[in-house]
Amino acid sequence: MTKGILPIERNVVDEFDEERNIRRTRWRNLIAFWILGMCNNYGYVVMLSAAHDILDSRFGTSNATTESSNNVTEVPIGERSCNTVSTGAILLADILPCLLIKITAPFLPFFVHARLATCVLFSAAGFVIVSVSTTEWLAILGVVITSISSGLGEVTMLSYSHQYPKQVISTWSSGTGGAGIVGALSYASLATWLNTSDTLLLMLVVPFIQAMTFWFVLVHPPQTKIPITKNGIDSQEQIIEVPRKSFKDKINLVPGLLKYMIPLGLVYFFEYFINHGLYELIQYDGIWLKHYEQYRWLQVDYQIGVFISRSSVNLVTINRIWIMAVLQFFNVIVLLFETIYYYIPNIWIVFTIVLWEGLLGGGAYVNTFYRMSTEIPRADRKISLGIATMADSIGIALAGWLAMPVHNAICSLSKPTRLGS
């Protein structure tokens, strides 16, 4: 004869099961935000990593005379290798639509499922269009569509994160940094054996993973509940919903957000000027990497730095983002003079500087949004996080505009003799 479970024992079992379910849900959400961050930025990163190849295959080069086995043109030793169009053009095509989305999306209705479906469809369409494009405008259109997907996904998921514990900001940021490594490394590796078109078509698996993660891995909170933290334990509580903010209320939040947005925008302005105004002009002859391969692996190196710093906020928190902006400006000066005078004798020194550049950029991003998630009142947090996403895009867009005339000016210079050669 078995005895029934006492009420006290039943309550203990129920509490244990509830705590276990809470822990399982928390880990599912943390993992889901990491994957979503990676998938969201993957296409954006790939388009920038492939920028030099896209321009070379679609626009040709100004002084190319020979073809490599990878459909990327090379130039004789002693001449500068310059595309007729700077990779800043791809950067602008990649960031201006993204910026437009980030400016408008925070002020539009928040239908999260419809937004994510749009992101998935646009991401897939971008890969397909660029891979099959035979004209310049079609290639640029594919980049634009990919940009719309990335921008809408970022502003949507950062806004949506206000319904989850603040730790998802860290895993989202880490995932976007992971996209840098996975995207740049996968492109650089696959492009070694495949042409650009086939490489991009293989990457259609990423939008599929994004969809599966959002609808089958992420645990969506009920509309009337918001996760809060009590004594360090995540829990759910029924709360009274905050009234919707008017357009005027949202605009009035902007001045108070400038202390976060201006330093972040400056960091991104400097680093993307380096990435798409200077990387392709750094050229080492007679080494183990050809010039077009140097561009690809500089992108990989940069993304490694971004991933490390975007994953570090739970270990190291930095409040003074303006310091990172100053340090990033010094990187601009060092690498600008390298492209003009070729005074850095070894490419490994450049790789070290680029890694440091990525650490600064990723650190500025994750620390800015982490600070906002802890300092801004919950009632304002959703819209504030969405608005702040436009800061990095504004900096990137300005960098793209500046990169093009600087690229043309440096390409008009004679190629110097490298120090130590």
Blueprint (SSEs and pairs):
Layout: H1 7-49, H2 51-59, E1 66-67, E2 73-74, H3 88-104, H4 112-132, H5 136-160, H6 167-193, H7 196-202, H8 205-217, E3 225-230, E4 233-238, H9 247-278, H10 291-310, H11 321-341, H12 347-375, H13 378-411
Antiparallel strand pairs: 1-2, 3-4
Helix pairs in contact: 1-2, 1-5, 1-6, 1-8, 3-5, 3-13, 4-5, 4-7, 4-8, 5-13, 6-10, 6-12, 9-11, 9-12, 9-13, 10-12, 11-12, 12-13
Membrane topology: Multi-pass membrane protein
InterPro entries: Battenin_disease_Cln3, Battenin_disease_Cln3_subgr, MFS_trans_sf
GO cellular component, one term: endomembrane system
Form type = globular
Task: Give the C-alpha Rg.
Answer: 23 Å
Order of helices and strands: HHEEHHHHHHEEHHHHH
Q: How many separate helices? A: 13
Q: Taking all residues together, what is the mean pLDDT?
A: 82
Summary keywords:
transport; 13 helices; Battenin_disease_Cln3; 421 residues; globular; mainly alpha; 4 strands
Task: Walk me through what this model shows.
Pfam families: CLN3. This is Battenin. Its main location: membrane. This protein has helices at 7-49, 51-59, 88-104, 112-132, 136-160, 167-193, 196-202, 205-217, 247-278, 291-310, 321-341, 347-375, 378-411; strands at residues 66-67, 73-74, 225-230, 233-238. With 421 residues, the protein is mainly alpha-helical. A two-stranded antiparallel sheet has the order 1-2. The protein has a two-stranded antiparallel ribbon with strand order 3-4. Helix 3 crosses helix 5 (136-160), helix 4 (112-132) packs antiparallel against helix 8 (205-217) and helix 5 packs antiparallel against helix 13. The model is unreliable at 61-73 and 224-242 (pLDDT under 50).
